[in-house]
Amino acid sequence: MASPCLCLGLGRFMPPRPAPPPESEIEETFIKGSGPGGQKINKTNSAVQLRHIPTGIVVKSQATRSRSQNRAIARQLLAARLDELVNGAQSRTAIVSEVKRKRAASRAKKSRRKYRRLAALAEEAKEKEEEEDNEEEEEEEEEEEEDTKEEERAEVGKEQEEGKPEWVRQGDLEAKREGDMGGDMEGEKKAEGVGGVKETDAGKNGNRGSDKERRESNERGAD
Questions:
Q1: Does 85 share its domain with 102?
Q2: What gap in Å lies between CA 132 and CA 114, rounded to an integer?
Q3: What range does the domain containing 140 cover?
Q4: Tell me: the pLDDT tens digits for 137-175?
Q5: Residue 79 lies in a domain
Q6: What's the structural domain count of the chain?
Q7: Residue 24 Cα distances to 27, 53, 182, angstroms
């Protein structure tokens, strides 16, 4: 009744479609269709129902509005049902179902692998971001520690200064003032030295001018 299977692979070779049983084993009935499809489906006997007499299998087809097409489709359905009954797991329907199942499993496996890879990349990116945040926090903590140490040193210096006797603090202030005054006096001396040199040069120039005038007046008197 059915042709032997060519191959059990994943679709590269599929068994041929089973042949329908002989007409002597079929009981055919034309009935009205049901469900949506318009008045032609519901009011005409276009649906086909077949009954296999030896086994009692019944199939029905109302796939189209054409009775001839429904007859051909019904015979294909009956042949597939008989193939399943006779060959079981080796039938075309079972092999096609197995191929579809394996393909769906393969797609699901690829999808899971893809999402696992994306999840791993996202986890790596998250870990890297957390490491950068930790480094920034460590740097901030180090800066805060340095600032705290500087503040502590300043407070210690202030406490030491406050802990000195009054006469020691006064002596430090006077020493500081004397240092500032000494610097100011040195600046004034330098300025005075530069001014004295300038005045000496001006006096020399004035003496030379007066000598020249006396010589000129003596020469005019001799004439």
A1: no
A2: 27
A3: 93-148
A4: 888 888 888 888 888 777 776 666 665 556 555 666 666
A5: yes
A6: 2
A7: 8, 9, 138
